[in-house]
Design brief:
two-stranded antiparallel sheet, globular, alpha+beta, Alpha-Beta Plaits, 177 residues
Length: 177
């Protein structure tokens, strides 16, 4: 089985501070952020914090092995690259099929190229599929994991997951002492 690395968050630990959203958006900017008031770029995190009266949970791509978003994409703009399911924004034409196919609701649409839509001509703004890419190319790995003050995020790697599953199966197969 060809499994992928992905990130999950523990809703019991999440404090709904939105640090993950901010870190994600900043990690994908093409500029440096020194102070919040000086940011001229759009706020486009690749995960979404969902909050209810009972729990809070960041929703993000699980990097599915069979990637329904990629399978349904008519432009073939969603592919697997370096262990992550990524969007080629040059190929994407914004049909939103991937949003319908994602079983986790982790797909979104955003302005192409990470640029703010032109206020004078909003109809000309091109939107494309937008999702977690595991902060591809970022030396520290996913920014959400690094920024979470509650340590709610865990990077799940295939080898670690297979070991955990094997350990649990062995433990379940052992007769009680």
């Amino acid at each position: 089985m060809n499994m992928s690395t992905f990130v999950v968050a523990n809703p019991r630990k999440c404090i709904a501070c939105k640090s993950c959203e901010i870190a994600c958006a900043v990690a994908h900017l093409k500029t440096t952020v020194a102070t919040a008031g000086a940011v001229d770029a759009p706020f486009q995190p690749r995960l979404c914090l969902v909050q209810t009266p009972l729990a809070a949970m960041p929703v993000q791509c699980r990097q599915c092995e069979d990637a329904p978003c990629a399978a349904i994409c008519p432009a073939r703009a969603i592919t697997r690259r370096d262990g992550a399911v990524v969007v080629d924004t040059d190929r994407c034409f914004g049909c939103k099929s991937c949003m319908l196919a994602c079983p986790f609701g982790a797909m979104d649409m955003a302005a192409a190229g990470g640029e703010a839509p032109d206020a004078a001509a909003p109809a000309k703004a091109r939107t494309v599929a937008h999702k977690c890419d595991l902060c591809a190319g970022r030396p520290g790995g996913p920014a959400c994991v690094e920024a979470c003050p509650a340590l709610a995020f865990v990077v799940v790697r295939p080898d670690e997951l297979q070991k955990t599953v094997a350990d649990r199966r062995r433990a379940a197969a052992m007769p009680p002492a």
